[in-house]
């Protein structure tokens, strides 16, 4: 290995922005605890599990049946 590398001509990954987007979302403590417990069982970070679940809901066009009183 070299002692130093020259990254002056390097360019950013053009696909990096499409990979993930950081957002702020407020979740109740029960939901976070649920996904954290699953994450310990399967060895996947809980944020990734939440993302996988939401992606599955979107792919299957799953909708909640909400009724307001």
From TrEMBL:
InterPro entries: BrnA_antitoxin (IPR025528). This is Antitoxin. The lineage of its organism: Bacteria, Pseudomonadati, Pseudomonadota, Betaproteobacteria, Burkholderiales.
């Amino acid at each position: 290995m070299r002692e130093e590398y020259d990254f002056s001509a390097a360019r950013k990954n053009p696909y990096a922005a499409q990979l993930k987007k950081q957002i702020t979302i407020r979740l109740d403590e029960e939901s976070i605890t649920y996904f954290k417990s699953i994450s310990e069982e399967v060895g996947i970070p809980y944020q990734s599990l939440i993302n996988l679940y939401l992606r599955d809901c979107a792919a299957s066009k799953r909708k909640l049946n909400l009724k307001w009183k």
